[in-house]
Every structure is written in C-alpha cells, then in structure tokens.
C-alpha cells in the first residue's frame, strides 16, 4: 500500500517551479546572498556612516574653530586655541573630576555586579532566572528622571536613609562621612557620594548583563577541573573565572565608564555645584554659546575611551571573544 | 590490604532519583578498573563521588583508607580526565598542564619542567606554547591526561575520555592508556558505556544499571559468566534464554545465556538442534551476525566470513555445546 502511494502519479515534481514576482525575487536573493546582505546593511550603514559619524566629525571640526571673546561670534579658521582653553586649570579640574568619578563608578559596578551575575549564570534556573532578568531590566523600563528624583528624596537630609540610620543609631556614621572633604557635604543628596551612589545604581544593569553573559559561556566543568587540580575556590576565581569573565567586565565597563563620562543630568540633580564634562558641554553650547569649547570638551571622552579600549585590547581582554 | 577506593553502602539521590543506590565497591591499588553501564546508570555519579564533586547522601567512601566525605575536591590527591577535557581556553598547553602545580605554589621553572616532562610522557613534547583551541581532539585528550598526571595522583579518574575520538584514534589511545597505567602503577578508574573498551582495557569491570552494580569481575568472568540478564545482554549482546528453554537443555529452570559465537548454524531442514528462521544478516567484516527467530525467541549467531550464508527466510538448525550454555543467578 505504501509503495502504491509513493508511485502514484500525483507525486510532486522534483523541481517544482514557483511563479510570481515574490518567488522570482527570493530565488534571486538566494542565488546572490551578497545582494541580500547589501540590502540589509544599507540603511544602518547610511545611518551610522552619515548621520552619526558625520555629525561627530562636524563636531570635531568645530573644536578647531575659536570664539571671538568680544563679539561672541565663531571664527571659522583652523586654530588650536580652543584646546588651549580646554587645558586651563578650571577645565582640567572638570575633566579630572569626571574621569575619577567614572573610574570609581565602574569599579564599584564591577564589584557589585559580579556576585549577582555569577549567581544568575551558575545557579539561577527557571523561575529564579526570570526573576533575575526582571529585577535587572525593570529599572531600565522606568524613566531615568523619575529614578533620579526618587534617589534625591532617599538621599535628602529629611529622607528615608537619614531616618533609617537614625533609628539604627548610626547617624554618627553618616555625619562622620559627610564631614569628610570632597566626598562629604551638607547631605548625601548634595555630595559627590550621592552622585556616585546614583551613578552606580543607574548604570549597574549595563555591567551585570555582559558579565552574566560572559560567565554563562564559561563551561561549569572548567570550575570543576580547577578544583580537581587542587585550586581553592579563591584560586579558581583568580585563575579561571575572573580571566574568562574579563571580556564581559570590560564590555560592561565600557558602558558604565562612557555613560558616566557623558552624563549631565545626574550630577546636576544630585551632587555639588561643581561641573562634570557633560554639564560643561551643556553650559558651553547653551548659555555660554561657546560651541568650539563645547566640542573640545566632547572630544575628551572620545579620546579617553579610545585609550581605554586600546589598553583593554593590549591587556588581552578581547582575546576570549 | 587497603583499598584504593572503597564504597560502603553509598547512595547519592537527586530528589527522588536514586543515581547511586547502596553501592559497595572496592578498587584494588594499582589496578585498571572500569565502570561500565548505559547512560544514567550511575557510573559517572560514582566517579564524581570519588573526585569529590558530589557528596554521598548515605554511606561512606574512603580513599586509601582515609574517609572522604566532606573533603572538597581540591584537598583530594585524586585527579580527573574530563569527558570533554575541560582544558582552560585562556591558558596555553604548558600552563594548562602546570596548573595543578601552580596552585600548589611550585615555582615557575620547576613546574614548567614537570609540565614539559608530562607532555613528553603523553607524546606531545614541544606543544607547550599552543592554545587548546589549536589542538585536535586526540591531542587535547593527551593534554588533559598530562594535566592530571603531572600531579602524581593516587587515583586517576577518567570520564569517558575516548568518547569524542574517532575509531582509529580510540584504539591507539586504548593501548597507550593501558601501557601508561602499567608503567606508572597508578590506580585508574575508567567510566565508559562502551563494553568493548571496558573489556579490552580493564583488569576488572563493574557493570552498572539503575544506580546499582550488577556484577564485578574480570572481563573474562563478566563475558563468560554473566550473573544477570542485563549483564549478559549489555556485555557482548549475549543471547538471553528464558527458563523454559534452558530447562530443556540443562534440566534447570533458570535464565541462561549463550554467546552468539557459540552457536553453530547448519543449513539443514531437519536434525538435532533448534530450528530457526533467518530474519536478517549483518555484515561485520571478519564475521557475519545472523538474526534468527526460533519459534518466537529472537537469537543471534555469529558465523565467520567465507562460510556460505543461508538466505533470509530460510530455516536452519542451530546447535551448541551444553558447556557453552551459562546458567545465570537471576531467579526465574
């Protein structure tokens, strides 16, 4: 019976022809995969190449112009005067402050993110894993401004943190910290410590996710092999887990570092009146109308990130990719 | 004499699954011991219990007389060759091999010298600078072996180490592992689901099924005198004969086993023996395996190459010596 069915005349043709435009089009694309690739890549390449890189380049160009201090007009002649202005002590202060903050935020994010990512990658399964993703992603869904204002309330002198520490009789700890130079202030919400806390909170998911992805790719038997060969858990961490998670940490740090370098809203709402690079750019191109200096300021994070990536590559952070 | 590894009523349960169920086991120092069984039979869990990756739910484990429960893997002088080798991808071959010595604090020149020697032992001298990713499967296997041996373990555990290799390479590695074990005198415990591998390499074999050990013995004992139907079937695909059949030939109402090579096949429609119909042939090179149907009982026979074969559907007579019919312990 089966053979009869197989031999029946209604069997489909060996090479059936499809008719119509759609069939012809998909056949052409199948025969020329490069054409398909071109069609898919053209829009993003145009966007990135012209709109994004182009405007970045225009910005870079602006930084080689200068402003006429009397008339406030931009002098469109090539000069390095603006970069000279950038190196004034006040501006260097801004750069140093921002880079230090970005470095500290990155370090703290990495330290906090690692155990969370490790748990998610190695232990969380099913429901707990879903909860992990929800916990990490949910804050990203709510408005950034709402979160920052919420933190302003939390960190304020009359805020819940002060109240909680008061209840725990730990207010002396907070007061002691706030009386320190640089990191201290009237309250957490007007100190660099507050700025730091909020930066870490806001950028933490960008560190957790890549580290978790990197750890997920580490086969569990490498940890077992290390232990089998006599390595204590600490040695396994230093010699196996950390080096293999490093590409993830570097990827995460690119986010936390560059986002902190460029942010101008968090330090404006929470922190002291001293400027960060983002705020400097904002005020130079806005109120001050000094577009060349604003452009020169934006070049700073680009150069720093360039060196950062170069250094990371030199350290072999991308070898395991 | 102290056993290299001793299990006393060891169980390891995962929830309701009894991966290892009240196993007693003694491995003699210096022997090549194979744990054979289908997947999920508990053999790998037993290996992991020896390595320390698992802790027993009940029972006690001792390694060279020392109690091992609660001792973490990194404080056991036991090393493992993992199924997929588990080489560290970020370290070169030499650093992989030297890893165990490095974490024990052996100086750089000394540990690199030892690693180089271990690489020579597995016939990979001068491969130290390569990355694991640049090696073939067989080479990775050797590096994994060198990485374990460099620590001079009391017991070397091998978890299906030849599973990923192709046939030719596997046969070479079998011989090499065996001569290496003889030369070093280290106790080898080898997990495999391949009965041929277990038979050809091991001094003794434990056959696992459903978390229990069915039989322990030399390959010959296991092959010639299986105790249960499972062992007879799993080791060498013996013909398992039901009690009623066995009674006709031995007078005892017990399960029996008969090796396929013990059956003689004659192309005669009548005569002494069991009449059976040929239902299939399987060409194996040196021999041909015949599938036969003896009145509903499925039997296999092996005939050497060059003998004229009956055609499918033909009725043949099967004869065998009384001595080759083995009676099993398993109750009828």
Explained architecture:
The complex is a heterodimer of chains A (321) and B (332). With 321 residues, chain A is an all-alpha fold. Chain A has 2 domains: 21-55, no CATH class; 90-314, MetI-like (MetI-like fold, Orthogonal Bundle). Chain A contains 15 helices and 2 strands. Chain A has helices at residues 2-7, 20-31, 33-62, 81-86, 89-122, 127-141, 144-155, 160-167, 171-178, 192-216, 220-228, 233-262, 266-269, 277-285, 291-314; strands at residues 66-67, 74-75. Chain A has a two-stranded antiparallel sheet. In chain A, helix 3 (33-62) packs across helix 15 (291-314), helix 5 packs across helix 12 (233-262) and helix 6 (127-141) runs antiparallel to helix 10 (192-216). The model of chain A has no long low-confidence stretch (mean pLDDT 88). With 332 residues, chain B is α+β, with helices and mostly antiparallel strands. Chain B has 2 domains: 5-232, P-loop containing nucleotide triphosphate hydrolases (Rossmann fold); 238-327, Nucleic acid-binding proteins (OB fold (Dihydrolipoamide Acetyltransferase, E2P), Beta Barrel). Chain B contains 9 helices and 18 strands. Chain B has a 6-stranded mixed sheet, with helices on both faces. In chain B, strands 13-17-14-15-16 form a 5-stranded antiparallel sheet, with no helix packed on it. A 4-stranded antiparallel sheet of chain B has the order 2-1-4-5, with helices on one face. In chain B, helix 2 packs across helix 3 (108-121), helix 2 (93-103) runs parallel beside helix 4 and helix 3 packs across helix 4. Chain B is elongated, with a radius of gyration of 24 Å. The mean pLDDT of chain B is 90. Chain A binds chain B through residues 219, 221-222, 224-232, 235, 239-240, 243-244, 319-320, and chain B through 51-53, 72-75, 78-80, 82, 84, 86-90, 99-100, 102-104, 147-148, 151.
């Amino acid at each position: 019976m089966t053979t009869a069915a197989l031999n029946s005349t209604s069997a489909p043709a060996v090479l059936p022809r499809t008719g119509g435009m759609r069939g012809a089009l998909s056949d052409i694309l199948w025969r020329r995969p490069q054409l398909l690739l071109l069609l898919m890549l053209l829009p993003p390449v145009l966007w990135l190449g012209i709109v994004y890189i182009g405007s970045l380049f225009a910005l870079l160009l602006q930084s080689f112009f200068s402003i006429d201090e009397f008339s406030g007009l931009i002098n469109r002649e090539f000069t390095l005067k603006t970069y000279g202005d950038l190196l004034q002590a006040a501006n260097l202060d801004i750069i140093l402050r921002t880079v230090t903050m970005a470095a500290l935020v990155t370090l703290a994010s990495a330290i906090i993110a690692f155990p969370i990512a490790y748990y998610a990658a190695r232990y969380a399964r099913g429901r707990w894993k879903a909860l992990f993703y929800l916990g990490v992603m949910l804050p990203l869904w709510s408005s950034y401004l709402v979160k920052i204002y919420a933190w302003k309330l939390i960190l304020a002198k009359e805020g819940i943190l002060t109240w909680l520490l008061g209840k725990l009789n730990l207010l002396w700890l907070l007061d002691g910290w706030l009386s320190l130079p640089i990191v201290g202030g009237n309250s957490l919400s007007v100190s660099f410590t507050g700025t730091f806390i909020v930066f870490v909170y806001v950028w933490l998911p960008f560190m957790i996710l890549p580290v978790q992805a990197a750890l997920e790719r580490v086969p569990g038997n490498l940890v077992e092999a290390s232990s089998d060969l006599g390595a204590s858990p600490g040695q396994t961490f230093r010699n196996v887990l950390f080096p293999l998670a490093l590409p993830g940490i570097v990827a995460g740090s690119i986010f936390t570092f560059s986002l902190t370098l460029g942010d101008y809203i968090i330090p404006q709402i929470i922190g002291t009146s001293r400027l960060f690079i983002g705020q400097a750019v904002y005020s130079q191109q806005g109120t001050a109308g000094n577009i060349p200096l604003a452009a020169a300021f934006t070049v700073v994070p680009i150069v720093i990130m360039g060196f950062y990536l170069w250094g990371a590559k030199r350290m072999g952070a991308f070898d395991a990719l | 004499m102290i056993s290299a590894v001793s299990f006393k009523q060891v169980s390891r349960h995962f929830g309701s699954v009894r991966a290892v169920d009240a196993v007693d086991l003694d491995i003699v120092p210096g022997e090549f011991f194979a744990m054979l069984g289908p997947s999920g039979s508990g053999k790998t869990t037993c290996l992991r219990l020896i390595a320390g990756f698992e802790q027993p739910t009940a029972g006690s484990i001792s390694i060279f007389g020392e109690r091992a429960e609660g001792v973490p893997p990194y404080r056991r002088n036991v090393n493992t060759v993992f199924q997929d080798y588990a080489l560290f991808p970020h370290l070169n071959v030499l650093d992989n091999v030297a890893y165990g010595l490095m974490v024990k604090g052996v100086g750089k020149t000394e540990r690199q010298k030892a690693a180089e020697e271990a690489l020579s032992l597995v016939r990979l001298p001068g491969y130290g600078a390569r990355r694991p990713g640049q090696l073939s499967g067989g080479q990775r296997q050797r590096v994994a072996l060198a990485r374990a041996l460099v620590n001079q373990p009391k017991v070397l555990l091998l978890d299906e180490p030849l599973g990923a290799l192709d046939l030719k390479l596997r046969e070479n590695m079998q011989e090499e592992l065996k001569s290496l074990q003889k030369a070093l005198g280290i106790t080898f415990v080898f997990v495999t689901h391949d009965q041929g591998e277990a038979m050809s390499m091991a001094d003794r074999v434990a056959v696992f099924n459903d978390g229990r050990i069915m039989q322990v013995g030399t390959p010959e004992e296991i092959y010639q005198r299986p105790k249960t139907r499972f062992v007879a079937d799993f080791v060498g695909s013996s013909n398992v004969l039901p009690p009623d059949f066995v009674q006709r030939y031995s007078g005892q109402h017990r399960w029996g086993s008969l090796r396929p090579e013990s059956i003689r096949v004659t192309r005669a429609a009548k005569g002494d023996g069991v009449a059976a119909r040929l239902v299939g042939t399987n060409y194996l090179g040196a021999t041909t395996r015949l599938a036969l149907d003896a009145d509903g009982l499925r039997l296999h026979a092996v005939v050497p190459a060059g003998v004229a074969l009956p055609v499918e559907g033909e009725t043949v007579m099967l004869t065998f010596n009384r001595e080759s019919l083995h009676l099993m312990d398993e109750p009828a």
